[in-house]
Structure formats: C-alpha cells, structure tokens
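For reproducibility, we list the full input for the GCB complex.
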Amino acid sequence: MTVFKKLFLLIILTIAPRLIAQETQFSNLIQNIDSRDKISLNGLWDIIIDPLENGFYNHRLQEKNDGYFLNAKMKSPSDLVEYNFDSSDQLMVPGDWNTQMERLYYYEGTVWYKKDFDFTPKTDELVYLYFEAANYEAIVYLNGKKLGSHIGGYTPFQFEVSDLLKEGNNFVVVKVDNTRKRENVPTVNQDWWNYGGITRSVHLIKTPKKHIQDYYIQLAKNDPNTIEGWVTVNNASEGEMVKVNIPELKKTVEATLKNGKASFSLKAKPTLWDTQNPKLYEVVIATQTDRITDQIGFRTIQTNGSKILLNGKETFLKGICIHEEAPFKTGRVTSKEECITLLNWAKQLGCNFIRLAHYPHSETMVREAEKMGFLIWSEIPVYWTIMFENEATYANAENQLTEMISRDKNRAGVVLWSVANETPESPERLSFLTNLANHARKLDNTRLITAALDTQSQDAKGRLIEDPLGNAVDVIGINNYCGWYYGTPESCAEIKWKSAYNKPMIMSEVGGGALFNLHGEKNERWTEEYQAEVYKNNIEMMENIDFLSGISPWILMDFRSSRRPLKRIQEDFNRKGLISEQGMKKQAFYILQDYYSKK
Ligand code: GCB
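The corresponding predicted structure, in tokenized form, follows.
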C-alpha cells in the first residue's frame, strides 16, 4: 500500500466510527429490574442441540429462512419431525450448557431453548421479556413470532411483548449460538471458557403503560454537594412531572419532562459512599402512574497527576481480578450466593477494589460488590486481536459498552470503565479504542476511563509506558507477567518503570500459575512456592513505581480455559488463581494478604 493510501485509510477509519458514534444515547433497557413486578422464567427449559442449524435454515432454499421449523406448526413440523421439544432434553436457566451436559462440554454452536408459561394479560400494563444475558447471539421468538436478536454475551436485552401474550399457555423459543467468529467481540481467541447458553436470568417484567424507563442519579462531576440527574418516562407527554425523593436526606425535587427527559439538580450533603462505609440511600422516583425505588450511593472519583482520589482523598486501589466463574461447581456464576463467596474471598485478601474481567459481570455481582464497599473496574470484551479495522466490529463493541454503562451507571461502586485488554498497537486500534473511550465519556463523564495495556517497551534499565492510547484514558492499566512469561521471579524486583504520562497506573495483571497443594522448590514452576515467589518479587518491583495507584493481580480463583490443556496440572484450568476452584487458598494468597494489610 502506498503512504497516501495508508493515510486515506486511516482518515476513513478514524471518521467512520465517529459517524456511527454521533448519537450518544443509552440503550432503552428498563433501569433497576429488581424494583419491578417480575415473573421468573428461570428453571428447566427444553432444548434441541442443532450444530448444523437445520432448524434455522430451509435446506431447499439457498437463502436464510430463520426459524424454519418454528414457521411450520410448532408441535408437528412438516419435515423436521425430529425437532420436537416435547421429547427433548432439558437445561437449567440461568446456566451455561458446557458444565450441565457432558456432551456439550466443548460445544460451540446453536442450541434451541423453549419455555412454556401461563399468563393472564391485563389491559393497563406493559410486559417486557428481559434477558440478563445469553452468550453469544440470541434470536428470540414468542408464540411463534420472531421478536428480534441480540449480539454480545454479557449484557442484558429486552423486548416489549404486551400485545403478543395471550391468556393461558404461551411459549418462548430462543436460538442461542456461541460460535466464535473473527469479527466478533471477543474474537476467536480468548483465555476463558466460551460458555454458551442463557447464562443469566430471564424475566417477564410488568410495568404500568406509562412507566419510568431509565434514570441517572449521581453526584455532579467532582461536586460532593450537588446531586443531579435525569429520568425518562415511557409513553409520557412533554411537561409531565417526575418527583425524586431521598427520604433520609429529606430532599424532594420535581422536574418536568422536556425533550423526553426530566432533568434535575439539588443541593445536599450526603454521607459519601466509600470503601469503609459504603453508604447507600433509598431514592424514590415517582410519576403519576409509576413509582420505583433504588439504593444509590454518592461519591466523587477523580485523578490528580498520578493519584486516584476517592471523595477527594488519595486512595490506593488494593485489588484483585475476578472472572465470573462459579466457585466449587465451576461454570458460570448463576446465584447471588456465588457472587458473595467470591467477594468475601476478595475481602479476606484485604481488597478495596476488584477488576471484573474481561466482560460485564451480572448486575447482582456489581450490586453486591458495591454494598460491600468495593471500587469496581468494569470492562467489555475488546480482548487481544479483535478486528479493529472492521466497522461492524466497532459498532458491536460500542453497543456492548453502551449496554454496560446503561445498566450500571447508577452504581457508585463502579469507578472505572475499561475499553480494552491487551490490544496490539496499530493506527486502526488506536482510533477504535480512542473512539470507545470518547463514547464512554459522552455517556458518563463522572467516571474514569481505562484500558489494560501490555505494550510497554523494554530495555536493560526497565520498562517504559509510551503507548499512544495513554492519551485517551484517565488511568493506565498495565498487565505484566514478570517471573512467568519472562524472567525469573528474582529478576522482577530489580525492574524499574517509567511512564510518558502524568497519569495514575494500575498494575491490572501480574501473577503466575500454581496447582493447589503442589509443593517443591521456589524455582519449580507450578508449585505454590514458585507462585509465592512471583508475588513477593513483583510486590517489591511495584513498591518502586511512584506513579502506581493500584494493583489487581491475576486472579482470585482458578478458572476454566480451553487454552490450558496441560495434563495433571491445568486440566483445562488457568491456574493463576490465588484460590483453587474448590476454594483452597494457595501460599501466594497469604503473601498478597500480608502486603495489603500493611499498605
Ligand atoms: C493475560 C490476559 C488474561 C489471561 C492471562 C494469563 O494477560 O489478560 O486474560 O488469562 O494473561 O493467564 O495468561
């Protein structure tokens, strides 16, 4: 390619995503589903495993004929007689399919899910079919009619179904497909299990016809004495009134809908949410026809040079990375209790911070973490070598970012939105990620933007952070595996770090692997002693970084990864956990615990 052509391409790539990003809007998700009247569709669903997707395509037509067997009579399709849910297997929802059925352990492809339920429609209400997440692509049908589809395995989506529901029996069918594709987010290559299925809860959510749809209620940027925000009301007219009340603060404000939003600002002196006292206030939002409550915390988060300030106070983030992997049983986390187990381990470690890797975790996880006083790093699966030059990939990543921020924008615990993990440098990647960072900021300018980088250059004296993406973020995350992917553990303590940016750095990954209860010399890989040595020396190295504002080593608990087949050691688990998947603590856990107790 000529220099001119390259330049032209770069300009196009920089501008195109901007054009897509021009309309900076939150997704239309109903905010705070726990405050709503819900009917759970969790439990056993009938399933049909369909690796060839014959239920989707008509084999006599070249083109797609989606939902082929659904278009025929549901229970007695003309030629696909074998697609019969009545005699099919069943899977639990929420849940991944890989750990529920031996023959689905490595499966990547399509599974059809079906659930029957009884319903009595009421004329004065709306009903939404709400999925907390399905990995990766879901196509949804209700009573044989296609509702739509959703791409992205870790964020919620909904359909308004009021007019399709009937008295008595109804059924929902979902085609879930977790096929990895080059253009997807994440792409074909990842270091965690590609768990397929309806992995989080499904609900029917009932609301009044005119209902509160969304709201954003937080402190004004860096101002601890001003609570501000907005509320949107579905099916309402301009000029209608919305009331926001915080009883404990004895504050009520009324706002009118203007251009679809009721915006407000009020002076108050709330007790600030912080890691020691994660204070949440009951906030009541009411219109003439609807009323919901939420528990909301108020805090400020900002940077000053290389420091992170929580409520104006310099705070060192003592963290740990967590995958959404269920303790003891493995597979996806599906219950609040499992979230609490993971979070309690992080508490025992002495953490005030968690990095929820590498995709948005469930709303339950975020809310429980907030209640326990954790600062939270939330991220989207823009991981490794996704197709930075592809417009559709950008649109997908941006949509996942929008959905994550839409869902969690009222959570004081969330302080960092991360747009990427370990992405190789290129002009296309720089423009892609800069656009994501700008998009996140447009949606939410009260939180800090970050990304985990592994692009630092290295020479005999040490490491230098100069990746140009550093310009686009507020906090620089650095993943670095001294003592594991390079160097001996002892060599790490000597390494000196420099940064071209006057910004905080979080060591967002550091660590090494060990099989629980495997003991030996400290230079023997996979032993607990080796892992402990990696931690000791990296801690020494990190103590010498004066612009370091936080740490989140990799990782709290061993997790499944099909990239990790090593017999007798890994057996399909990434062993960098400080705790085994059976809840057993390794020596390195206590090294980090000791460090945090003194920090
Ligand atoms: C990384 C990745 C993480 C991997 C980890 C490892 O740098 O960000 O997803 O699991 O290293 O264990 O290699």
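The chain is about 20% helix and 30% strand. The longest helix spans residues 3-21. Both points were considered when choosing residues for closer inspection.
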